[in-house]
Amino acid sequence: MNRLSQQTSPYLLQHAHNPVDWFPWGEEALSKAKTENKPILVSIGYSACHWCHVMERECFEKESIAEVMNAHFVCIKVDREERPDVDAVYMDAVQAMGVRGGWPLNVFLLPDSRPFYGVTYLPPQNWVQLMKSIDNAFQKHYDELAGSAEGFVQNMLVSDTEKYGLVTGNGDYVISELDIMFEKLQLNFDTEKGGMDRAPKFPMPSIYKFLLRYFDISQNPQALAQLELSLDRIALGGIYDHVGGGWARYSVDDEWFIPHFEKMLYDNAQLLSIYAEAYSLTRNPLYEDRLLNTIQWLQNEMRNEQGGFYSALDADSEGVEGKFYIWTKAELQQILGEDFEWFAKLYNVSEHGNWEDGHNHLHLTNTVLQTASALKLNVADLEAKYRAALKKLGEKRAGRIRPGLDDKTLTSWNGLLIKGLADSYRALGHEYIREMAVSAGAFIRDNMIVGNKLMHSYKNGQATVTGFLEDYAAVTEAYLALYQITFDEQWITLARKLADYTIDNFYDQKEGFFYFTDIYGETLITRKKELFDNVIPSSNSIMAHNLYLLGMMLDEDGYARISDTMLSKMSKVLLADVQWVTNWAALYCMRASPTAEIIIVGADADDMRKDFDRFFVPNKLVMGTITRSDLPLLKSRTDINGKTAIYVCYDKTCQLPVTQVEYALDQLAGA
Q: How far is CA 145 from the centre of its chain?
């Protein structure tokens, strides 16, 4: 047992029995390196990471390799999900070295924590050779290493404004610039298989968030076509778990067929939002099915006893990637019996298989009925039999050894999920979905807010790690969403408090963006800002959305000014390479056309809101009360002769109140 046995992170605990003398990130390890004048090895990964497991088995579990590591380095293990600040700093350094980033991320530092070399996965022989070479360089060429390290640190210290040439724009938001953004994004569309023209294929939800909003403004049929193609293929391909619900992190191919089997909470959270909005727009029953089954999976497998949600399911079970999810032809024949023949044709099941060692992974390219029609399958009551077949597979799969569960609860990812559940509730209207969202919001309120600060991670009844910008941004967004589906003012009050804390303790007045770390957080070699959208939107772009909405909802121009400054400074990047800033582009859509303020007042406010929310109106905020409220947009608003009233407003100017949702929608259409 090494020092990691005292940690709560599932990833660190996975390494607690390694013969490597691992330290967790902290003062003890950093001081040891300085005292003994040893280089530091920081090895970063996460519990559901397949190649992290492979490198552990091949290298870190081997006594002979551990001896080399222990003799020459102070070895530190970091859970990138628990310490995204540490991961971001050293990932940035490694990419500056010309190394393609990924996990496991192994970075070598001087005793003062400055990085000088980094790699991702290496097989045992290469790993040992590298360590010996680095030890030799440290002993005999220290000055050269120190020079390299200083260069990388200086690169990281360059301000984002200088690095990316960000300047304040003119503050105008015009639809013609959105057309330019779409045309730039379109250059990288995969118009045959959906998504972007690359492999592996990641869902990248903020791309579809932008397309939904751009289509709402432009009615450009090409935007809708790419949106539907992509969402159809993500819903039908093997990246979606046809038996159990939920999406894997990405597909290794360019067809959405074979996933990297880990399931991450953040992907599923965001995909709930995207499919909910897309369902409101298209009424595609496939989207409804994926929403309901994914929410069921989250409820069954990912929810903790207090209403929060765990982080991830591993890619591996029994040391084999995907073993929990794959089938041999013989297994399927035995389980499905007389239903095997048509099922095998639907899914192209074969003896050879489409995965490793004769196994089949379930994926489609068209809906079940479309595929059956194309194959001329004549099966009576196909849809019911199909659902029954999947249920049989689910029951059989339940007896298998399950993938590992990362049972820490992360504040930021739970914030994303609350937003996803709120959006799903708005689209589908099922009360249990709203209850899940509110319960998760209460979990964060009761367990993750200590004093006036957010904590980042929760495990075994304990909240740890000072919160990061991603936590404040995602939870503020979540609480604004909860207010809009409940009209419970505690949520908007909490959102305001979190936003104020963020401005006070994260905001860089000089550059106009937010730092990733709290001013009271641990000091690393540099204090970074997260600007670019990736598989999760950047915390700055989420915060810019929040401040825009808060500014309108609370009639506070100060919030909106910060949001506008941020968006304005991103305008150069938006027009040059929008695919890395699509959440910013989604905000640009909200600024390029008027945001509807929907005010609902009266005894039936919740029912009226529920009816209204079914419709696709992405550029809106919704506020309401059954009696009266002192919130600025609700003051002086009343029902009409005892009937619940809807006020459709733009920039605090309202049209005549109406008492039916259809009339409110007509007012929106005519605006």
A: 36
